[in-house]
Amino acid sequence: MSIFPMPIKSHFVETFFGLEVGQLSAFDAFEKITTDSRKVPNNHLFFALPGVSSNGWDYLKGIAEQGCRAVVVPKGIELDESLNLVFIWVDDTRTSMVDYIARFATPYPSCLCAVTGTNGKSSISFYNAQIAQNMGLYSAIVGTFGVGLLGDLKASDQTTPDLLSMHALAIEFASQSVAHLTFEASSHALDQKRIQGLPIDTAIYSNLSRDHLDYHGSMLEYARAKARLFAFSSLKRAVVCLDDEYSDLMLKSAKCPVYSYSLKYKEADFVGKNLHFKASGVTFDLCVMGIEYSINLPLLGEFNVANAIAALAANWDVFDDKDALIDTLTVLEGAPGRMQMVSIPNAPLVVVDYAHTPAAIEVALKALRLHNRGRLTCIYGCGGDRDRGKRPLMTQAALKNSDLICLTSDNPRTEPVQQILDDAVLDQLDAMSVMEQERLMVVADRRKAIFDVIANADVDDVILIAGKGHENYQDIEGVKHHFDDTEVALEGLKKCWSN
Questions:
Q1: Residue ranges making up the domain that contains 57
Q2: Fewest Cβ atoms nearer than 10 Å: which of 79, 165, 277, 297?
Q3: pLDDT digits over 304-330, tens only?
Q4: What is the model's pTM?
Q5: What is the spatial distance between Cα 475 and Cα 356, in angstroms, rounded to a whole number?
Q6: Number of domains forming the structure of the chain
Q7: CATH number, residue 162
Q8: Whether 32 contacts 68, CB under 8 Å
């Protein structure tokens, strides 16, 4: 679809860019705009944007060969003026494109929320959209879990798409009656200005931990990239976690009213306290600016309490009925592959999580330890064609934080599965000992591993299936075979525990 209600007549384009009358007289109208140099028909207006490894203006010859005749380029660069192109010179092509969209395109969703942080942004986005939808606003998300309406998500290649795609997605959602759109704002996207000009009204910050330093160079620069979100002039509110050491930077960067949230500091606007962990979730007291509420949250892990509170705070002044808003927390569904519960009555609880690093496995297991009454088992694997050094560290993290572990395949990709398994038990001085104690099993076939663990569990046990989370495939020799941990876990539970 086009983001414009009708083709833009050339004289309107001339007026917008301040061109002389008749400069675009060879054109009747421009149906669409594009930044993709591979697809530029003659009725498109091409905006040459700066890139990371190359720039849009590097491909003007190919663009001309496709039939495109009008291109927007930045002032001050040298171009081949012999090309059969009309050059529209501007100070900044990103800003110019954003302004062009704002001038001619159809409206955006009425509520536009961006979530940033190292951990938690995917879950916060998912909960934020659920809360808004349960309060009556048709909702959609863009991020790690996919792109689309809640319940109808399509796979996405990037956490945050390119600049034009982000604007086009938001406008397309609005045309489908979506009133509330939540998306993840990655540090790369913020640094590369991939969300510039979006009319974001709500910004959420979760936390910062070591990540992407190959790109940003230092934790401070990483934090500064995140902080750019809070300088958007369109913001009506910001939500910031006080429990993170970089929260002060976000607070100082905010150009709008801020709601703070915390599980530690009582001075925050939203405070979660008195947490009690059950097999089905967490009960806790929520203090909102002096008013206390009792919450029964059907999610696992202390961090999900914080994530749910962040999503609630983002909606706090959007809706007048506070009691109904609080009640939405009691019906939240777990994010796909993020501490996702798989259960049937009178059977062990299985939890599927995306944890695929030593630190993530440790965090997930420590969170689950608070919930279980029986043994805690971890089923995990290590990805092929990836960092071999972290494989034994994953085994160490699993052994240290659970009662039983089962090493299996993950996405072997082009590596032999046995090589990956051998790496994972490398340097485990007591590997034979833990095997003899039946604390460590090695089952190469992932389906069999899941079935075997479920079959040998007790009813009070909790089983973590770590590594793949929301992924619904196994990558073997470059071929993606359908494999969904939640589907296999449910199949195993029904086979082994249904009466």
A1: 8-104
A2: 79
A3: 999 999 999 999 999 999 999 999 999
A4: 0.86
A5: 15
A6: 3
A7: 3.40.1190.10
A8: no
